[in-house]
Amino acid sequence: MRSIYDLTYDEMTEMVLEHGWKKYRGDQIFRWLYRKKAESFEEMTDLKAEMIETLKSEFSIVLPKLVTRQVSRDGTRKYLFELEDGSLIESVMMVYEYGKSVCVTSQVGCNMGCSFCASGLLKKQRSLTSGEMTGQILAVQKDLDASGDRVSHIVVMGTGEPFDNYDAVMTFCRTVNHDVGLGIGARHITISTCGLVPGIRRFAEEHVQFNLAISLHAPNNELRSKLMPVNKAYPIEDLMDALHYYAKLNNRRLSFEYILLKGVNDSDACARQLAELTRGLDVYVNLIPYNEVDEHGFRTLDYKQAMVFYDKLKKLRVGCTLRQEHGADIDAACGQLRAKYEGRKSS
Ligand code: SAH
């Protein structure tokens, strides 16, 4: 059965019109779901009884089920959710000065095979529906309601490759962005891709305000192909072409994600090549401490070493920040909590 959370505001309106109901009914249902956070159609007391019956027979209304929650000393909360088919997924809530940001999972497992990432330990089982992504935000928001806090930012940076699930991810972004519902500002929503060029080009043509982040992690093909198999299909030249295309069509700043892997991508040559790639493009580099994953054996740079690389980039006049680490005391790396939980279940 289709989930009611799969419908954008416009689709909700179409749906009620198709049933011969008044247009404002769509608005009402949308408000019930995202403002009042109703979890059953019966709660929607201003709908007629027969409407409720029809909705019940056509749509499910189920949020991801909370399995466990870890809370870090810095306020980071990591959630393990179970979906209707039993799949386990993770979401993370991070606390910043500017608000509360939720990291959303877009697929169960991932096929991109990045050599440093815990998500890829489980191959892609399936893509999430938009309703399952929206459900993660609603479930986290409900958890925050107790303290009067609000999800203000979203990053599609959990397990999965968003551009391998393009339509559902865009529907999700539009749904949570709509001001009749959660009203999370488009400029506060970031989609992160490992570099699927067709997706980037398609996204460029949508002219939306959602932010685009690229997981670069290496500034030359030799190293990038070693770390990220996707680079063999879409090498850096193709990626850069797509990014310049995006920049031509959109007046929006891009960001590069660059995790700091000790002795791997932190050389002087890497800094220079990275600087070269940023020339002529409105792009900001986020240097990210690597969350060590036992299975992979990469090491992160400590703060002092990270500052050395940061200073090199600054000298080369690259706009960059060194991202603070969140949830270091909990299993905050993508896929870590799920992997641990599965391990526990099977041992
Ligand atoms: N597939 C998308 C989104 C999910 S990964 C993408 O590749 O962008 C989100 C970000 O987390 C990516 O930049 C990814 O490279 C990074 N990442 C993966 N494992 C990590 C780890 N152990 N520590 C720090 N960042 C990690």
Short description:
The strands form three sheets. Strands 3-4-5-6-9-10-11-12-13-14 form a ten-stranded mixed beta sheet, with helices on one face.
Multimeric state: single chain
Count of the domains: 2
- Proportion of residues in β-strands: 15-25%
Which whole number gives the mean pLDDT?
94
Weakly predicted, low-confidence segments? none
Share of helix among residues?
25-40%
Summarize the helix and strand pattern as letters.
Answer: EHHHEEEEEEEHEHEHEHHHEHEHEH
CATH architecture descriptor of the largest domain: Alpha-Beta Barrel
CATH domain fold name of the largest domain: TIM Barrel
**CATH hierarchy class name of the largest domain:** Alpha Beta
Span of the ends, CA to CA: 35 Å
Which cofactors or ions or other ligands sit in this model?
Answer: S-adenosyl-L-homocysteine
Q: What is Rg?
A: 21 Å
Note the overall shape. Answer: globular
CATH level-4 homologous superfamily of the largest domain: Aldolase class I
Count of separate DSSP helical elements: 12
**Strand order across the largest sheet:** 3-4-5-6-9-10-11-12-13-14
| Broad structural category | alpha/beta
State the major sheet. Answer: 10 strands, mixed
In total, how many beta strands? 14
